[in-house]
């Protein structure tokens, strides 16, 4: 069952990753699933939300910039980033943002 | 053809709207399309990206907090928000965040 990320009260950080895929599979699904699993074990990880249609959007939430920096430098994640640039994405953007306020139900 | 939002250099703001739908249609598709169209005409609007699978994610980008506040208070948008709360969403979260850095290709 789908769940929204259960983040703590702000402030915290959001990494907004948007992408457009190429049509090359080459292990993409397995790697994407592995990255979600691995991110969850990282210090400072607060949650993530993903959807893909024409465009893919993954927003991951983090305690602070240091946690984001560590995750970006993780060896397995570095390999995934390289495959992303070279093979899986025709376009992507990463936006690092500080969540100041939230509401909802 | 899908396109990533062509945002200016940071800083700017991102409104991260994530939701889980009910199974009630009641004009949802038309209203969602109308809100995208209307948002694009608002002062300070910089772009938007959307995808929905089990979870829906729409990220809209804005010049500053005043632009976000104006859009939130727009009369047609207020009606859409009310329908969202009462009819279309079983859960949603709005996160207002300041984009500090971005990269990609």
TrEMBL record, chains A, B:
List UniProt keywords, sorted A-Z. Answer: Monooxygenase, Oxidoreductase
Q: Does the keyword Metal-binding apply?
A: no
Q: Which InterPro entries match?
A: ABM_dom (IPR007138), Dimeric_a/b-barrel (IPR011008), Jasmonate_Hydroxylase-like (IPR052936)
The record's SUPFAM superfamilies line, in alphabetical order, gives: Dimeric alpha+beta barrel
Does Lipid metabolism show up as a keyword for this record? no
Q: Which GO terms describe its molecular function?
A: monooxygenase activity
Q: From the Swiss-Prot or TrEMBL record, give the protein name.
A: Antibiotic biosynthesis monooxygenase
Recorded source organism is Deefgea chitinilytica
